[in-house]
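User: Run a structure prediction on this.
Assistant: Running it now.
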Amino acid sequence: MSTTVSTPKADETCAYCESRIFDHDPICVRDCDDDCGSPAYFCNYACLSAYIDENDLTTGNACEWTPGESDCC
């Protein structure tokens, strides 16, 4: 799986709040389960977290841990 790394445009906006990402602490996210499509940029972890929560992106994607059992995941 190969991706191309490039710096986003100076006026790139956050996928969640639409603020300019470089006015903050930007994060780049790709969905590499689906051919590493176009990146989504977020201005900070708070916007990324809110985006994940609002779109239910963790539902069904986590291990189930049962205390006392030795084989998790």
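The first strand starts at residue 27 and ends at 29.
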